[in-house]
Amino acid sequence: MDMIQDETLSLEPLDEILESMPDAGDCELIPILQKIQESYGYLPPSVLKAMSDRTGIAASRIYGVATFYEQFYLEPHGRHTVRCCRGTACHVKGGRGIIKAIRRILDVEEGETTKDMLFTFETVACLGTCFLGPVMMVNNDYYGHLAPNKVKYILERYG
Ligand code: FES
User: Fold this and answer.
1) Which residue of 20, 50, 94, 151 has the fewest CB atoms within a 10 Å radius of its CB?
2) In what order do the strands lie in the sheet with 119-124?
3) In this prediction, what percent of the chain has a pLDDT beyond 90?
4) Is residue 83 within 6 Å of ligand 1 at its C-beta?
5) Which atom of ligand 1 lies closest to the CA of 85?
């Protein structure tokens, strides 16, 4: 998939979303943003501006919510999100090797998206499943007790 250029984005999907939510207002802000992200893959600035114009919701409020919640992305994001733990419990069990394997296999650094827009790679301080360490997540799936040589096979399932 080619990188989506913000200025060339159609506002048609936005209009369809807003038509399906005729009373869209401040209370529906999160569901609207979720639908926009589902349609566009992220929250493009030009679409958020148009949404502000059409709904009357202040742009500052929209950006406040969009930047507060981790689920929202303000830049193009891969179809799948790979999150690897860099916390201490995982680190002592070989977490650094997992991070290195992901970087090598996807050919990206932390915070980057693969050129084919398939994966975005992030590291987090703890995934809350230290007993599974070293652990990574792909979207909502946990993969624990990992070894570097397992990473490639797991990621291939999402190709
Ligand atoms: S330190 Fe890795 S899941 Fe908690």
Assistant:
1) 20
2) 119-124, 80-85, 136-138, 141-143
3) 78
4) no
5) 2
Neighbours of 47 (CB within 10 A): 21
85 ligand 1 Cβ < 6 A: yes
Q: Given the structure tokens 């992220």, which residue do they identify?
A: 42
Helix (H), strand (E) at residue 98: helix 95-106
Helices (runs of H) and strands (runs of E) counted in the chain: 7, 4
Q: How many domains does the chain have?
A: 2
Look at residue 64 and give its three-state secondary structure: helix
Residue 129, ligand 1, Cβ within 6 A: yes
Residue 146 pLDDT > 80: yes
**Residue 53 lies inside a defined structural domain of this protein:** yes
Its domain, for residue 39, covers 6-68
Q: Does pTM surpass 0.90? A: no
